[in-house]
Specification:
This is 3-oxoacyl-ACP reductase FabG. The protein has eight helices and seven strands; from the N terminus they run βαβαβαβαβααβααβ. It is α/β, with parallel strands linked by helices and 240 residues long. Strands 3-2-1-4-5-6-7 form a seven-stranded parallel β-sheet, sandwiched between helices. The structure holds NADPH dihydro-nicotinamide-adenine-dinucleotide phosphate.
């Protein structure tokens, strides 16, 4: 039986790259997205072209009840997942003195709240499946060392690290590993239009690609990482 991995925010960017890489590695994929159905369909078609099964699942990871209902229905129909890649996220930057309530609330709700909203319905079925598993959460360089203009995003992504390290302790004896990946500057829609001087800021003098992040996520979902848990791997070109 092929193992299935849910990748949230798989319609584009890092999530899309993770979905395609994990499919190439032999997993069936649940392609989650929020609103870009057309892109999600294309990702599913690419996965099927690789000989793996793919299905779409749409919900807002910040909407707890919606997430719970969609995930429980999917599990009831198809069975528990082997793995989850918590990738869906957003940023809403502002210098702190000018930050609006909505900017703080939306980023905390989606980027940190999503950790709870997505994993809470999934973890018990993963445990009951009794075959181990993999959970990988996308944090960020901002969550490790902070970043100006991103007090909200850094708080959420730092919270993800604290949460995954705690959950790793709870799930270790079940052979479910819980790890994080903390990207630096990665070339996706999220960083398009940024005025950061990458050559000055990043020792490797370039942005990373979504595929380079996906390679690390893939390792953390593979049998090779069976004894790796409660860790956060930075993928940042030497940023810090
Ligand atoms: P993109 O903006 O390119 O893609 C974001 C994805 O998340 C999309 O699939 C989008 O779905 C989905 N999404 C956004 N908000 C929600 C929501 N409320 N509910 C459900 N899905 C949602 O992001 P990246 O690929 O650049 O980033 C992926 C992850 O990596 C994020 O968690 C981000 O914080 C993190 N990261 C990225 C870095 C970078 O430099 N790019 C650096 C550090 C961390 P849809 O297409 O349907 O809108």
């Amino acid at each position: 039986m092929t193992n299935t991995i849910l990748v949230t925010g798989a319609s584009r960017g890092i999530g899309r790259a993770c979905a395609l890489r994990l499919a190439a590695d032999g997993f069936d994929i649940v392609v989650h997205y929020k609103s870009r159905e057309c892109e999600a369909r294309e990702v599913c078609a690419e996965i099927e072209a690789l000989g793996r099964c793919a299905r779409r699942l749409a919900f807002d990871v910040g909407e707890r009840e919606q997430a719970r209902q969609r995930l429980e229905a999917d599990i009831a129909e198809h069975g528990a997942y082997y793995g989850v890649v918590l990738n869906a996220g957003l940023h809403h930057d502002a210098p702190f003195p000018g930050m609006r309530d909505e900017q703080w609330d939306s980023v905390l709700n989606v980027d940190l709240g999503g950790f709870y909203n997505v994993l809470r319905p999934l973890v018990m079925p993963m445990i009951q499946r009794r075959r181990g598993g993999r959970i990988v959460a996308l944090s960020s360089a901002a969550g490790q060392v902070g970043n100006r203009g991103q007090v909200n995003y850094a708080a959420a992504k730092g919270g993800v690290i604290a949460a995954l390290k705690s959950l790793a302790l709870e799930l270790a004896k079940r052979r479910i590993t819980v790890n994080g990946v903390a990207p630096g500057w990665i070339d996706t829609d999220m960083t398009a239009g940024s005025d950061v001087e990458i050559k000055k800021v990043v020792p490797m003098q370039r942005m990373g690609s979504a595929e380079e992040v996906a390679g690390v996520v893939s390792f953390l979902c593979s049998p090779d990482s069976a004894y790796v848990t409660r860790q956060v791997i930075a993928v940042n070109g030497g940023l810090y």
